[in-house]
Write a structure and sequence with these properties.
The chain is of the alpha/beta class and 433 residues long. The protein has three domains: 17-225, NADH-ubiquinone oxidoreductase 51kDa subunit (Rossmann fold); 231-318, Ubiquitin-like (UB roll); 323-416, NADH-ubiquinone oxidoreductase 51kDa subunit, iron-sulphur binding domain (de novo design (two linked rop proteins)), CATH 1.20.1440.230. It has 18 helices and eleven strands. It has helices at 17-22, 27-33, 37-47, 59-64, 88-95, 97-111, 125-140, 171-178, 207-211, 213-219, 221-225, 258-265, 299-304, 323-337, 343-361, 366-379, 387-401, 403-416, and strands at 74-79, 115-120, 156-161, 202-206, 228-229, 232-233, 235-242, 248-253, 275-279, 288-289, 313-318. The protein has a five-stranded mixed beta sheet, covered by helices on one side. Strand 2, helix 7 (125-140) and strand 3 (156-161) form a beta-alpha-beta unit. The longest helix has 19 residues, at 343-361. It is globular, with a radius of gyration of 23 Å. It binds flavin mononucleotide.
Length: 433
């Protein structure tokens, strides 16, 4: 497979406009500016490109939702990259900032947006500096600004740094933050395509999604759609971390086996260790086990297995790690990051941490595991945004798949504390939060 996003990724100077242009950069922009807007959206639809930020929604379809009317419209690039385990956008922005900028200009032109923003997570200082430099170069070259290359299309691009909050990666929380407010999610609908930034129609996409647009315009949507598998077209950047010997970002063709990624590319766990569980799409995806390693890595196969491709971040946990610690670490992150706006998320993440702490310290009984599972069920689908679900799905899956280990941990900890074995479980009233 030839690389699309990571093509020449480590070539010195590729972050500069000179080298990027010498390697064919900005030719897709010139091609796009000569095309009718609808034709670009059609190419995106035909390409089958699905959002790379987590939800996997068709980019072309989302772009087609932006009304055609001559009103203020916006394009926003989600560069918050806050999902634990995800670090692919970082490498793209650092090494190929112009490919993102070019993708943004083409996408803005396609939907008729004259103002665009990159919202980048606050911790990405180097990447923000590189992007600032690249934006200045693009302006200087006439790719941004008034009447771009005589097309009559004008575009302004502003980089905005966030202050480090997971919730500001959620698209409506991001928009509130961009407007200068506290980053809280909005009630949907209306969706950003109809009412987004400053209440104007807004196309919001992830860095990787937007950086894939120039190659699609260059090669044509139909050609791009030949890569990957049905319903999961193209290539994907996967960030592999955790207990593997070669952690890092890899560009794969969607549909290859997960084992090939975890073992073939990332080297698998250290000798003598085995995969206990893995998160296929960031820390918010339900966990899979060693039995699932031969699953094709694509949107549908992972969904059918009860999990999701998410942001494409694979976190591998080997048999040296206690599952209770994984669950507690996860839940603590989501409790810390919950914005507190809706009750199921605010209370649910807090009580889950409290209960897991009891499990860890040996104050719990196996009955508490039922209560933890029930709380997760009550969070899923009941929050203002999916931050609550992002904790409930993996924690629920850990309790369901590793219950014997949780129970053994509880009994061993009770023994150490001198509490004696727990009593057999009795029928529990359903806990309502
Ligand atoms: C709590 C939360 C955090 C999110 N964080 C990110 C993020 O850091 N980066 C991102 O691209 N999408 C993130 N998303 C998904 C966005 O809401 C949205 O789906 C995405 O920006 C759309 O772009 P795409 O269609 O190109 O994937 C997050 C969603 C939630 C609920």
């Amino acid at each position: 497979m030839s690389a699309i996003l990571f093509d020449r990724i480590d070539e010195p100077g590729l972050a500069t406009i000179d080298v990027y242009t010498r390697r064919g950069g900005y030719s897709a922009l010139k091609k796009a500016l000569a095309m009718p807007r609808e034709a670009i959206i059609e190419e995106l639809k035909v390409s089958g490109l699905r959002g790379r930020g987590g939800a996997g929604f068709s980019m072309g379809t989302k772009a087609s939702f932006i009304p055609g009317a001559e009103i203020d419209k916006y394009l926003v690039c989600n560069a918050d990259e806050s999902e634990p385990g995800t670090f692919k956008d970082r490498e793209l922005m650092q090494k190929k900032p112009h490919q993102l900028i070019e993708g943004m200009i083409i996408s803005a032109y396609a939907v008729g947006a004259n103002r665009s923003f990159i919202y980048i997570r606050g911790e990405y200082v180097l990447q923000a500096e590189m992007l600032e430099r690249a934006i200045a170069e693009a302006k200087q070259a006439g790719h941004l600004g008034e009447n771009i290359h005589g097309s009559g299309f004008s575009l302004d691009l502003v980089l905005q740094r966030g202050a480090g909050a997971y919730i500001c990666g959620e698209e409506t929380g991001l928009l509130d933050s961009l407007e200068g407010k506290r980053g809280n999610p909005r009630l949907k609908p209306p969706f950003p395509a109809n009412e987004g930034l400053y209440k104007g129609p807004t196309l919001i996409n992830n860095v990787e999604t937007l950086a894939t647009v120039p190659p699609i315009i260059e090669m044509g949507g139909a050609e791009y759609a030949k890569l990957g598998v049905e319903n999961s077209a193209g290539t994907k950047l996967v960030s592999v971390s955790g207990n593997v010997q070669r952690p890092g970002n890899y560009e794969i063709e969607l549909g290859i086996s997960s084992r090939e990624i975890i073992f073939g590319l990332a080297g698998g766990p250290e000798a003598g260790r085995s995969v206990k569980l893995w998160f296929p799409g960031g820390s918010s995806s339900p966990v899979l086990t060693a039995d699932d390693l031969d699953l094709p890595y694509d949107f549908d196969s992972l969904a059918k297995a009860g999990s999701m491709l998410g942001s494409g971040a694979i976190i591998v946990v080997d048999d040296s790690v206690r599952v209770v610690d994984v669950a507690l670490k996860l839940a603590s992150f989501y409790r810390h990051e919950s914005c507190g706006k809706c009750t199921p998320c605010r209370e649910g993440t807090n009580w889950t941490v409290n209960m897991l702490e009891r499990v860890q310290s040996g104050e719990a009984t196996p009955m508490d595991l039922d209560i933890i599972a029930s709380v997760q069920e009550q969070i899923i689908g009941n929050c203002l945004c999916v931050l609550g679900d992002a904790m409930a799905m993996p924690v629920g899956s850990l309790v369901a798949k590793f219950r014997p280990e949780f129970e053994a941990h509880i009994e061993a900890a009770r023994e150490r504390n001198g509490l004696g074995a727990s009593q057999p479980a009795v029928e529990q009233p359903v806990l309502t939060i």
